[in-house]
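Students often ask why inverse folding is considered easier than folding. One informal answer: many sequences map to the same fold, so there is more than one right answer. In these notes we will look at a single instance of the problem. The structure comes first.
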């Protein structure tokens, strides 16, 4: 498989970017990533990423925003390059049969990372992008929902979510997080509630309430059946579980799926 420097692909697509001098608009990107050796499909994808952020960078007037944008783009290109052997065939196939999916998923990524201040979240977004490109599932609605959800999460949110999973290699638990950021367990409640709203965590109290409700409905249905009989029998009253005064949570299948997507 023939490979070239990323800068060669960027130069080849310069006309599509309106002949803008990428070296002038994104000097750090060209300097740090231009020498990356990439295969054709990945090179074309990477040059499209660079070309897409050129207009954004061209309108930035604050140096810290420029530095952040370039840092995030370089991080994205590094991760894509590291995964190029697995990505190449998939990208070539998408470019031939589903270019619209590739375009929209790339735009969704860039919407999330261009102004993202947390480096960890940039990594999570790009990992998700790479893993979604590798996947055979090209359901655009699911992909856009993933990026939309990720855009509303922070690194701390992800750390809390990981603490409810066995996927974290660092083994960080919720008490470790409390100690690290100097808050008590109860103060993290708003994060757990936020993750619950996104369907990534489930309240165990809510689960108990749901199960209790099912038992009550089942009891009433059985009671109605017996009532219609000529000789109705007794219906056993269900034992309902008591809701805890302090709520606890568990990770949902969606939460586990998202953690899998954002891992390298």
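Output (designed amino acids):
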């Amino acid at each position: 498989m023939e490979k070239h420097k990323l800068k060669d692909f960027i130069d080849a697509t310069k006309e599509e970017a309106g002949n803008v001098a990428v070296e002038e608009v994104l000097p750090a990107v060209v300097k740090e990533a231009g020498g990356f050796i990439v295969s054709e499909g990945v090179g074309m994808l990477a040059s499209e990423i660079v070309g897409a952020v050129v207009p954004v960078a061209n309108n930035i007037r604050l140096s810290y925003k420029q530095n952040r944008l370039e840092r995030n783009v370089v991080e994205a290109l590094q991760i894509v390059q590291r995964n190029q052997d697995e990505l190449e065939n998939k990208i070539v196939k998408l470019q031939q049969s589903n270019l619209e999916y590739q375009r929209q998923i790339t735009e969704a990524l860039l919407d999330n990372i261009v102004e993202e201040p947390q480096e960890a979240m940039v990594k999570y977004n790009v990992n998700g992008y790479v893993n979604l490109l590798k996947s055979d599932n090209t359901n655009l609605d699911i992909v856009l929902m993933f990026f939309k959800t990720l855009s509303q999460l922070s690194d701390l949110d992800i750390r809390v979510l990981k603490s409810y999973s066995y996927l974290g290699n660092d083994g960080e638990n919720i008490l470790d997080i409390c100690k690290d950021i100097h808050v008590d367990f109860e103060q993290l409640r708003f994060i757990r509630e936020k993750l619950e709203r996104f369907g990534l965590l489930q309240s165990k109290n809510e689960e108990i309430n749901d199960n209790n409700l099912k038992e009550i409905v089942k009891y009433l249905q059985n009671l109605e059946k017996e009532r219609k009989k000529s000789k109705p029998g007794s219906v056993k009253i269900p034992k309902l579980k008591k809701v805890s005064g302090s709520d606890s949570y568990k990770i949902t299948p969606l939460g586990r799926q998202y953690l899998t997507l954002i891992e390298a």
